[in-house]
Design brief:
The protein is α+β, with helices and mostly antiparallel strands and 113 residues long. It has one domain (11-112): 50s Ribosomal Protein L17, Chain: A, CATH 3.90.1030. It has four helices and three strands. Helix 1 (11-28) packs across helix 2 (35-52).
Length: 113
């Protein structure tokens, strides 16, 4: 399937890792990771924020099925969603940092705008 990166993991492991990273990003506002992971996290995080702009029971349940912490879902719908209510996408920013010391993987910081 074009458009998704496998990140060297099987589907279950990859989705679990990305769910954790999206949860951490929404909880703390920014994370440091590799560029390819940041690009995958960006698409999923922006989908979650778009859900939060329409606060209904259905969208809350969709968010609960993906995000791993209840407190982060509360924050998403009560703080983050209303903050971006007037914005049409582009809720995150990726800033490239340079190569990682151990294996020279290109690092980046992904943060909420």
């Amino acid at each position: 399937m074009p458009g998704t990166r496998k990140l060297g993991r099987k589907t279950d492991h990859r989705m679990s890792m990305l769910r954790g990273m999206v949860t951490y990003l929404l909880e703390n506002g920014s994370i440091e990771t590799t560029v390819t992971r940041a690009k995958e996290v960006r698409s999923l995080a922006e989908k979650m924020i778009t859900l939060a702009k329409n606060d209904t029971l259905h969208t809350r349940r969709q968010a609960y099925s993906f995000i791993t912490k209840k407190t982060v879902v509360y924050k998403l719908f009560d703080v983050i969603g209303p903050k971006y209510a007037e914005r049409n996408g582009g809720y995150t920013r990726i800033i490239k940092k340079g190569p990682r010391r151990g294996d020279a993987a290109e690092m980046a910081i992904i943060e909420l705008v």
